[in-house]
Amino acid sequence: MKKNIRLLSMLTASAMLFGSVTGCGMHENADSAAPVSYSDSSYKASDLQTGGGNMAAEQQMDSGSKSSEQRTDSGSKSSEQITDSVSMADKLQTEASMAEPESYFGNDSLALACESSEECINAGNSLYFYPEGKIYNTESYEKPDENGFFLSRVQPLSTIAADVDTASYTNIRRMIESGYSAAEIPSEAVRPEEFINYFSYDLDSPLAGDKFGVTAEVSACPWNRDHQLMFIGVKAEDPYEGTVPESNLVFLIDVSGSMAHKDKLTLLQDSFKDLVDNLPGEGVVSIVTYASKEEVVLDGVDMREKSAIKKAISSLSASGSTAGERGMQMAYEIAQEHFIDGGNNRIIMATDGDLNVGISDPDELEKFIEKKKESGIFLSVLGFGEGNYKDDRLERLADCGNGNYSYIDSKLEGHKVLVEEMSSTLVTVAKDVKFQVEFNPARVNAYRLIGYEDRKLEAVDFNDDTKDGGEIGTGHSVVALYEIISADSEAAIDLKYQENTKADESDDFATVKIRYKEPDSESSELIEAVVGNDSFHEKPGDNLAFAELAAGFAMLLSDSEYTGTLSYNDILREFRKIERKDEYRDEFYNLVRMVEKRN
């Protein structure tokens, strides 16, 4: 008789929450794929167990990688976490069908109703159970189609909203360290610009009185000898010199049942307590939690009361469904009550994104968030966990809410985002930042922007102050990488009926324009910089040499049609030639090694 496993907690229609929202900062005509649930790349619980073992073995072999001790609390799958799933999954393994799941069961319901105790699998909120006994991952992602080439003569302008998110890289890192092969990583989860921008670069600081400094370089493309790569790096001013001004911080924490995992609420608590230990002494902290109902745990407590704040964080426990809408409303209300004129007013939302109660109309959700951001309160979104992780929803929240988006997979990453990069993560120095690159057809025949598919804007949006851009924190940097075909390349496309540009005197590659608003202003300002002939180098400098490896890794993982001759071995070989390395770049190298071994 077919097993009949039932879920006690009610699943609402809002499971589609955020799914079809048009991204803030993305032009209306951008091709956008529907959110993808990672159910077509299935795995059994036994696969998870061996994946964790493989990760540990490879880390011991790789010099410079994070030790297994350091990753103990990172949320990696442990045998204790999956013992119940493994025993039943092994018992039930048969040929899997692609039928709709008979049941969904999760920690939103702490008790499962089964015909017998043997039929219950306590696999947590992260998994679907199919009648034939196969376990499916329900993570969801969305990404528009990959950027292609544009002829400079026909379309000389490339316009995007700034993006300083890094969640995609750390989420993919989590997958690789958990034993995923390249084929098992969902291509929709890979956003190349977040791979590139996860790392630090040696960029020119702004000149006195300027908001941004611009660094540009052009050199050969490693995966296509007929093409070149253009590196454009933008670095924001740091008026606070790495510190944080008087702050009004609201921690908006998901404590629903789906968060009851070590890689979710436990890791979240450790990361927030680390932040509290390193906060400056000026300002207030509030804590709002949400599950089946919202609750104000702390209301404007002095930031110097670190013990009280950490005690409140430690007291949190997970249960119930996820009513995210009302939680967000309350967080904004609390932030407004304690608003500091001229200070740093920010909500830090932490969740796995598995919202199932709240605004069901995506358009209404977008309107709600966009209206709130006009209050001068900024938003940081921190993602946690695996299996049921909703990346598509969290990225949209951050894009619409004047904020940034990071994924926390370990204590080390929590420390990096919330402590090492505290000022850039928590303090905005420019909002609605947009970049527009105008290519010179006399020098550049065609170009392709690598990544930023969901941040593209129409050219006319650049000068329109009502169109949303991105937010950049103090001292933060943003890098964009273009693959270009030079006008004199054999791969260049000739236009018979267009104006001949070969006689143009300028040898510039492009002009970079940056439009931004001060955090408390609604009028934009403009900065321009030229990518001249002196930007070209036969051998790429350290910035471009590493950025092209990060981009290439993302392109291979996402099965890009533009990888040409590139391989994982090529990335490993070229990495060894780079002079400037740090622990994060060394870790990158080891991730590539892991994927190459499983490929």
What topology does this entry show?
Blueprint: E1 36-37, H1 45-61, H2 79-92, E2 103-104, E3 127-129, E4 135-137, E5 140-141, E6 150-151, E7 157-161, H3 167-177, H4 192-196, E8 212-220, E9 228-236, E10 247-254, H5 262-278, E11 283-290, E12 294-302, H6 306-314, H7 324-337, E13 344-351, H8 362-373, E14 378-383, H9 391-400, E15 403-407, H10 411-420, H11 422-426, E16 428-439, E17 444-449, E18 470-473, E19 477-486, E20 510-517, E21 524-531, H12 542-557, H13 568-575, H14 583-598
Parallel strand pairs: 10-11, 10-13, 13-14, 14-15
Antiparallel strand pairs: 1-5, 2-3, 3-4, 6-17, 7-16, 8-9, 9-19, 11-12, 16-18, 16-20, 17-19, 20-21
Helix pairs in contact: 1-2, 5-6, 5-10, 12-13, 13-14
Structure description:
- The structure is a single chain.
- The protein is α+β, with helices and mostly antiparallel strands.
- The chain has three domains: about 15-140, no CATH class; about 150-240 and about 430-599, Sandwich (Immunoglobulin-like); about 245-425, Rossmann fold (3-Layer(aba) Sandwich), CATH 3.40.50.410.
- It has helices spanning about 45-60, 80-90, 165-175, 190-195, 260-280, 305-315, 325-335, 360-375, 390-400, 410-420, 420-425, 540-555, 570-575, 585-599; strands at about 35, 105, 125-130, 135, 140, 150, 155-160, 210-220, 230-235, 245-255, 285-290, 295-300, 345-350, 380-385, 405, 430-440, 445-450, 470-475, 475-485, 510-515, 525-530.
- The model is unreliable at about 1-25 and about 25-135 (pLDDT under 50).
